[in-house]
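To the wet lab folks,

You asked to see what we're planning to order before we commit. Fair enough. Below is the target structure as tokens, and below that is the sequence we designed to fit it. If anything looks off to you, flag it before the synthesis order goes out.
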């Protein structure tokens, strides 16, 4: 890592020693003032110690040093007169204050002179490699997160589809009725009436179409007119019953033939004589589908 050439902060002990030195200097200078003007000696000592120490060592050391300097001055120099040797010591110590201040100013480099050592090329390469590895890991983690999100969405869609299928399987299904008749008005009326009574209905216009729909949808009941073009209901009934795929489909024939024994030979599950009332048709369908209350 790069090193910065900065001036270290002095330890508290060093600062206390320098503050004590300033106290001594302030007291010596105060002795000179007291010799010339005894009234202002103590004030000068306190002010000189406070200003100099605060400027050089901080507020806390300044307050403590100023009080100590004032107290010491009162004890030592309160009489206001000095001998020649005491005056010489006071003059010498008073000269140290500006010298110490000047040395302090030279020792503190301005902020602009604080320099930073040039980075080591090897360290830069190591940092680049580390940064590249970190970015690669972040990219891989992001890709994995996206894959997990896609997998989660697919699982949610699958669960929703399975729930819908389960609901459809569990939901009660309406019996499907195939109405085969050549009269469009009767087909439409039958479809609407049966829908109102709870049946799903599909229709066919003739026996051929009816056979195709019966094989494709396997309705619960085929309602067919015995007389129709192309393929009548009797032939349709025979084909439905003879086909293994539709042998289980119930057939209800609508007929105007008075000879019911002939019609029963065709093996329909039930016969209704025309004209058919809707209530009679509904009752027959309920019997054939097992939906009777």
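Sequence we intend to order:
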């Amino acid at each position: 890592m790069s090193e910065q050439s900065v001036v270290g902060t002095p330890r508290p002990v060093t600062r206390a020693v320098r503050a004590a030195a300033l106290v001594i200097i302030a007291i010596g200078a105060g002795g000179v003032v007291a010799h010339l003007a005894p009234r202002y000696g103590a004030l000068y000592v306190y002010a000189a110690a406070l200003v100099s120490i605060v400027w050089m060592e901080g507020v806390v050391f300044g307050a403590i040093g100023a009080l100590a300097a004032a107290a010491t001055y009162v004890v030592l120099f309160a009489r206001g007169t000095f001998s020649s040797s005491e005056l010489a010591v006071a003059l010498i110590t008073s000269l140290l204050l500006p010298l110490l201040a000047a040395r302090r100013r030279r020792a503190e480099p301005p902020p602009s002179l604080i320099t930073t050592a040039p980075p080591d090329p090897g360290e830069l390469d190591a940092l680049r490699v580390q940064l590249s590895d970190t970015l690669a890991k972040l990219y891989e983690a992001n890709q994995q997160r996206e894959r997990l999100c896609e997998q989660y969405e697919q699982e949610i869609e699958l669960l929703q589809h399975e729930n819908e299928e389960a609901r459809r399987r569990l939901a009660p299904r309406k019996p499907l009725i195939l109405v085969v008749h050549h009269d469009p008005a009767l087909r439409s009326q039958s479809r609407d009436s049966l829908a109102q009574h709870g049946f799903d209905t599909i229709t066919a216009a003739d026996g051929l179409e009816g056979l195709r729909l019966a094989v494709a949808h396997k309705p619960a009941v085929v309602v067919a007119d015995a007389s129709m073009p192309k393929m009548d209901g009797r032939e349709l009934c025979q084909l439905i019953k003879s086909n293994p795929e539709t042998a289980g489909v119930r057939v209800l024939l609508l007929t105007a033939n008075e000879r019911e024994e002939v019609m029963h030979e065709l093996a329909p599950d039930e016969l209704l004589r025309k004209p058919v009332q809707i209530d009679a048709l509904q009752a027959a369908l309920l019997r054939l589908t097992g939906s009777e209350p």
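Structural context that might help your review: The chain is about 65% helix and 10% strand. The radius of gyration is 58 Å.

Thanks,
Computational group
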